[in-house]
Amino acid sequence: MTSATRAPVLELTGVTRTYQSGNRKRTVLKGISYTFEPGRMYAVIGPSGSGKTTLLSLASGLDSPSTGSVRFRGRDIAELGLGRYRNRHAATVFQSLNLLTYMTAVQNITSAMEITGVRRGNKRQRAVELLELLGVDADEHHRRTLQLSGGQQQRVAIARALACEVDILFADEPTGSLDHETADGIIEVFRKLAHDEGKCVVVVTHSRAVADASDEVLHLKRGKLGAR
Ligand SMILES: Nc1ncnc2c1ncn2[C@@H]1O[C@H](COP(=O)(O)OP(=O)(O)OP(=O)(O)O)[C@@H](O)[C@H]1O
């Protein structure tokens, strides 16, 4: 299928976000319109403070735009329910990962499936399948995540996000704290998820390597999307 024939999975239309602190208002995003497709990897780049995390929060249903709309498969996510959108359709891997470090890799994934109400008979088996897909070795599946390396923890966090069978995966600076080699492995994971598994992968990054590996690069500058 060519990209021209793919139905969009996510559409931002005229999205603005204004923050108010005291009497001061500041519009961080100034009318962003963009269409995301399945099976593609997107990088969101831009200077510090340009609104990348704000854009990710709106697109992932953690926050609502001041004006404009965010649509998942044609339906406004506010109407769908932000909680439902986040649980069923769009997962986010945060910079802090938020793994439960006293639990094993498998337990982190199965507990997320319980919490988000995934109806699947053998959750442990699914957790193992996902860890294998992401290249986490079998002897690491049952180790507490505290004992795993940064790159392994990042993979577990991605597996946990995918466990809820989402269509869109957002990640905020996923390679920021990793060495080059480990970062390259994570970039490859994202590319495979997009190109082989058909996910829409959206990564906020300062990394040139992530931007170079992406199918599309969105450059945020002064609240607008521009050419790179
Ligand atoms: N909840 C908030 N209330 C008020 N201002 C906010 C809030 N969240 C973000 N901002 C402001 O919005 C602007 C954009 O922030 P954002 O975190 O989206 O930028 P960013 O491009 O992700 O930056 P960085 O690359 O440094 O992480 C900043 O000036 C920030 O101070």
Q: Estimate the strand proportion.
A: 25-35%
**Rounded Rg:** 17 Å
Roughly what percent helix?
25-40%
* Main sheet makeup: 6 strands, mixed
SSE order: EEEHEEHHEHHHEHEHEE
Strand order of the largest sheet: 6-7-8-3-9-10
CATH homologous superfamily, by name?
P-loop containing nucleotide triphosphate hydrolases
Mean pLDDT over the residues:
91
* Total helical segments: 8
The secondary-structure class comes to alpha/beta
Net shape: globular
CATH topology: Rossmann fold
Number of domains: 1
Function: Part of the ABC transporter FtsEX involved in cellular division. Has ATPase activity.
Keywords: ATP-binding, Nucleotide-binding, Transport
Subunit structure: Homodimer. Forms a membrane-associated complex with FtsX.
GO cellular component, one term: plasma membrane
Describe the structure.
The protein is an alpha/beta fold and 228 residues long. It has one domain: Rossmann fold, CATH 3.40.50.300. It contains 8 helices and 10 strands. It has helices spanning 52-59, 77-80, 82-89, 105-115, 123-133, 150-162, 180-195, 208-213, and strands spanning 10-21, 24-36, 41-45, 67-72, 75-76, 90-93, 168-172, 200-204, 216-221, 224-226. The strands form 2 sheets. The protein has a 6-stranded mixed sheet, sandwiched between helices. A 4-stranded antiparallel sheet has the order 2-1-4-5. A hairpin with a 2-residue loop joins β4 (67-72) and β5 (75-76). α4 packs across α5, α4 (105-115) runs parallel beside α6 and α5 (123-133) crosses α6 (150-162). The longest helix has 16 residues, at 180-195. The protein is globular, with a radius of gyration of 17 Å. The two termini are 27 Å apart. The mean pLDDT is 91. The structure holds adenosine-5'-triphosphate (ATP). Adenosine-5'-triphosphate is lined by residues 19, 21, 28, 46, 48-54. Homodimer. Forms a membrane-associated complex with FtsX. Residues 10-228 form the ABC transporter domain. Part of the ABC transporter FtsEX involved in cellular division. Has ATPase activity.
